[in-house]
Design brief:
Number of strands of chain A: 5
Largest interface: A-B, 119 and 119 residues
Helix content of chain A: 55-70%
Number of helices of chain A: 23
Order of helices and strands of chain A: HHHHHHHHHHHHEEHHEHEEHHHHHHHH
Radius of gyration of chain A: 29 Å
Strand order of the largest sheet of chain A: 3-4-5
Distance between the termini of chain A: 66 Å
Largest sheet of chain A: 3 strands, mixed
Strand content of chain A: 5-15%
Shape of chain A: globular
Structural class of chain A: mainly alpha
Oligomer: homodimer
């Protein structure tokens, strides 16, 4: 299925490219309006800025809106700057308040202010409510357009309210239940509502609500929505008064961005702010060079360690041969442990206060791995070189594996405990640390066993 | 908010542990039945096998079912083996067909067969339908209990059908529209239905359907559902006849598992099949040791390369000092590129046929990074040692960065093109390859410049 879609995409891309090259706008219009919004999004994400504006202008109004909503905020910002003021104002008025806020963040302040002022008063208020929360908080990403009910309304009365909000509520499938102080005291699903006796009050069939505060980070809130596997999560202020709603589709958008950021950080680079092929080479270089330099400076530790043991190396050049193997194995062991624990943290399987349990496990895991690898290393090096070298390699592998697993497993927990992003205590740093300490251990063991 | 929950969890865990130790079953029952199902799940995932069965038995029937559904299949399997036959049969009959299939896969074949035969005939048929698809396919994970409508039914008639399926359909918010051959010709949301005139036919307001085939891998199907940000995805056979439905909450379960697997594979270990703290140490060791050994064997390549250049090293021991720094930088550069491209592949931003574009970009990115790092390395090494060493280090950094970015960026695409999991062409392999070739480049440059 997937393959069929990509195959037909190929032909579509070609005919679009041909129409663009030949400036055949009517032909282009026919082609792009036959595509589904996800197909158009896919295509324009891979185009240059100018072509993107051309294609976008040719879309029918409804499709243009859907495509626009599906683009990254950075691409939205670029696109808007290529459109005429009236076109932007119309598009902007049609967006949902949460999408509007994302776009406003991408635009120059003057443009943003002008757009906001062009909105009808009610829409402006809704947008301003979302704009009031700090950057990165779920308050910025929630929708202020929700449908609600009250404990003493009947199922039939609630159904009536739902019908009135059919067109503008972000979701009608999950309804927060509010008390007289607008505090969330329950939640009912549309299915509950349809199942209930028409005259029974909401309080009879509402569930205990799961809510999050608007100041929580967008990523944590989205993760919570996904973890609970619910369709929508009410967002509240610090007195549990309802201020917005996060639907699972918006949560998925947020998580998609967050996962790209995490993946980038774990490999030691800054996240790209737009699709790979639409990112200029110099931006990609910029996203990677700082961490590479930082890590390279960190790696000069290993140069210093080796310089300390230069005399030992001169006496026994054979020790050099094993350096990449030993530090590589240490790095791999550390990364395995760090990745397992980072993932367990993300899933809520472990928490920072489990650090003693995790340390105890990783010491046992690391020493078992070290025993296995050390034995293999001892046997191989003894056969190829001599038993003394074999002992050095075997003992070093044992020590490095134990240390690397312990350090790798505890780093994410320490990161989380001091409220740093666990991904910042990332794998390359563990590698650098394990490299340097591993070399020290190696030469100390070598000096002891070989008497140099 | 999150912090408050964990704090109260701490006290709960303590009181549960105390009650378990004192065998105070009535007290324990009160405590655990006051918790929400997600809290109970969190708690039992961190318990030993026996305590888990004790706690589970004390839950009220509805809560027990919800908790059971929230557990990993492996833990479900263990739990079932600790319960009495009648208890298992009752629980099993209450599960949804897709959950039942997941559990059956975890149980010994005889137990599985007995459980299946104990089901009412209709439930057995539904379960068998799901069991007919291959392991790992979405057919195994979909729900066969869907609500559907037809193009010539009216909105009011469809609403009537929905009311009849309120209790047993997996979702009522997304309804596939079928033609007389059960082929999916459209989809309507419950919101569309409520918005439509009661007498208008479904064909007037249905949308074009997004569907996937039941033989597609569960991960691809779940990813598609999440990418489309839709609440449910109809699953069809190869003639687009409806066979099941995948809801976004089930898609999220599938993706959670898939992400854990990918994270594990990228770091070179096998995924754990249950929560970290519930996994025995020997299973963790087993999940890591094979890859560590494979990677260590791969790393013996570096030993061989260094052995070839042993004479050069004896003449210039100073060259040894930079080995970890150079191969570390190469590894980091390769990992950055591989991670960026793997992520872009997962998001559909690049496809295997973009390999030329990707190669062209990564050569430019890598050489720019190499130019920057090489200049810094040249300056630093010239100051600390001499200009000749500076030139060797600078040129080597330039070559290694260019090569590593190119290899790292193309590996995931090659992996995808030959239909291997891109995560199998994982970062540690790139590192091993870049280590060995980087060392060769280093010594060739050193020999040329230093005339040794």
């Amino acid at each position: 299925m997937n393959e069929e879609i990509s195959a037909s995409d190929g032909t579509i891309t070609e005919s679009v490219e041909r129409a663009l090259a030949e400036k055949d706008l009517p032909g282009l219009s026919t082609v792009v309006n036959r595509l589904s919004p996800p197909q158009v999004i896919d295509m324009v994400e891979r185009m240059g800025v100018k072509d993107r504006a051309v294609v976008f202008r040719l879309l029918s109004k409804g499709k243009a809106l859907e495509v626009f909503e599906g683009l990254d905020a950075t691409l939205q910002g670029e696109l808007v700057q290529g459109l005429k003021d009236e076109e932007v104002a119309l598009l902007f008025a049609d967006l949902d308040p949460d999408d509007r806020v994302g776009l406003l963040d991408e635009l120059p302040a003057t443009v943003a202010r002008r757009l906001l002022q062009g909105l009808p008063p009610q829409e402006r208020d809704l947008t301003a409510a979302v704009l009031g929360y700090p950057h990165g908080s779920i308050g910025r990403r929630m929708s202020p357009e929700y449908a609600v009910t009250y404990p003493d309304l009947t199922a039939a009365q609630t159904m009536e309210r739902v019908r009135e909000r059919l067109d503008d509520a972000e979701t009608i499938y999950t309804l927060p239940v509010l008390d007289s102080g607008r505090r969330v005291v329950g939640v009912v699903s549309l299915r509950d509502l349809m199942r209930a006796e028409p005259q029974s009050p909401v309080s009879d069939f509402m569930h205990a609500p799961e809510v999050v505060q608007a100041t929580m980070t967008a990523e944590s809130a989205a993760r919570r929505c996904a973890d609970l596997k619910i369709l929508a999560l009410p967002i509240v202020d610090n007195e549990t008064r309802l201020v917005g709603i996060l639907t699972v589709d918006d949560a998925l958008w947020i998580l998609e961005d967050a996962e790209s950021e995490d993946a980038a950080r774990i490999s030691g680079s800054e996240p790209l702010r737009r699709p790979y092929l639409a990112t200029p080479v110099r931006s990609i270089v910029r996203s990677r060079v700082v961490w590479l330099l930082v890590l390279a400076v960190g790696a000069t530790l290993t140069v210093q360690v080796l310089a300390v043991f230069e005399a030992t190396l001169e006496q026994m050049v054979v020790l050099t041969l094993f350096i990449p193997l030993l530090i590589g194995t240490g790095g791999n062991t550390g990364n395995q442990a760090a990745t397992t624990v980072t993932r367990a943290l993300a899933l809520g399987d472990v928490r920072p206060r489990d650090i003693v349990k995790v340390l105890a496990r990783e010491i046992r895991v690391g020493s078992s791995l070290g025993l296995l690898l050390g034995t293999v290393g001892f046997a191989a090096a003894s056969l190829l070189y001599d038993v003394q070298i074999g002992m050095v390699i075997g003992l070093t592998l044992f020590s490095i594996c134990t240390m690397a697993a312990t350090v790798g497993g505890s780093m994410p927990l320490i990161g989380k405990a001091i409220r740093a992003d666990p991904a910042v205590f990332s794998n390359p740093f563990i590698t650098t640390f394990v490299d340097a300490t591993g070399l020290i251990v190696y030469f100390l063991i070598a000096k002891a066993i070989l008497n140099i």
